[in-house]
């Protein structure tokens, strides 16, 4: 018996959705029938993905916001609800890196990475929470990283922020569970995206040697995992960190 995921009638908001994992997630949700608000740093950057969704027959909204600003996050959620008729699924994918060895890392580099990756996740969860609680339903998927689970030299700021997302996810799962809201995290491993394509070849080779499946992952594979957690197939899954890394972290 085949199982298909149908999100017809659902509305999703995906942050960091102009490229890479976020774009793949937005399109996968749209392919399953959801209407999608595509959020990037500017609406202009989000518009091409919104157009791709419209070509699929979905209602789509291009939004721009600084995810680290709670007022902008709230405005984006409110705009989504007003234009698309509600909100059922929130995917917090927005993130940046400012890598460097700890002893050389500036305070600004630490603060900005934490602000975008961790506080941005908090801001959108806070902005969407009232709607989800009132509806007594909702799916929140927060994108963390295996770096948040095992750490990584040269990424103290990114690792700290991504580890914080794990704690935030599990805490919200306990707070919101009684209202029918699931909150989960995805921890991608080495995924071929714009953020990884320019890494030195020796770094890629070393990473590949650590992956039991002997290949890097794709954005589409992360999108598939997101679809599971955002759908009714994941209705009894909450507070979990789904590691999608080809076995890299075992």
Summed up:
Helix content is 46%, strand content 15%.
Total helices: the number is 8
Number of strands: 7
The CATH topology comes to Rossmann fold
Indicate the percent of residues in helices: 40-55%
CATH top-level class: Alpha Beta
Largest sheet: 7 strands, parallel
- Cα radius of gyration in angstroms: 17 Å
Could you name the ranges where pLDDT drops below 50 across 5 or more consecutive residues? none
Beta-strand content estimate: 15-25%
Task: Write a concise keyword list for the protein shown above.
about 250 residues; alpha/beta; Rossmann fold; 7-stranded parallel β-sheet; 8 helices; 7 strands; globular
What does this structure look like?
The chain is of the alpha/beta class and 250 residues long. The protein has a single domain (11-241), classed as NAD(P)-binding Rossmann-like Domain (Rossmann fold). It has helices at residues 20-31, 43-55, 70-84, 107-135, 147-150, 156-176, 201-209, 219-230; strands spanning 11-15, 35-40, 60-64, 89-92, 138-143, 181-188, 241-244. The protein has a seven-stranded parallel sheet, with helices on both faces. The longest helix is centred in the middle third of the chain and has 29 residues, at 107-135.
């Amino acid at each position: 018996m085949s199982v298909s995921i149908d999100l017809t009638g659902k509305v999703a908001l995906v942050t960091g959705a102009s490229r890479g994992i976020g774009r793949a997630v937005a399109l996968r949700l749209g392919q399953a029938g959801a209407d999608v608000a595509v959020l990037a740093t500017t609406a202009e950057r989000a518009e091409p993905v919104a157009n791709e969704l419209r070509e699929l027959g979905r209602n789509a909204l291009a939004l721009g916001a600084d995810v680290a600003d709670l007022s902008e996050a709230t405005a984006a959620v409110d705009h989504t609800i007003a234009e698309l008729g509600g909100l059922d699924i929130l995917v917090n994918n927005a993130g940046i890196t400012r890598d460097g060895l700890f002893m050389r890392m500036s305070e600004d580099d630490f603060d900005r990475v934490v602000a975008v990756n961790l506080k941005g996740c908090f801001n959108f969860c806070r902005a969407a929470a009232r709607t989800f609680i009132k509806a007594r339903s909702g799916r929140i998927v927060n994108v963390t990283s295996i770096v948040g689970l095992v750490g990584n030299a040269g990424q103290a700021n990114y690792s700290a922020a991504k580890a914080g997302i794990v704690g935030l996810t599990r805490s919200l799962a306990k707070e919101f569970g009684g209202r029918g809201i699931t909150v989960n995290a995805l921890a991608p491993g080495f995924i071929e995206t714009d953020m990884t394509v320019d890494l030195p070849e020796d770094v890629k080779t070393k990473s590949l040697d650590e992956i039991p499946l002997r290949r890097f992952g794709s954005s589409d594979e992360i999108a598939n995992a997101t679809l599971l957690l955002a759908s009714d197939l994941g209705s009894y899954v909450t507070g979990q960190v789904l590691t999608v890394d080809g076995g890299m972290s075992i």
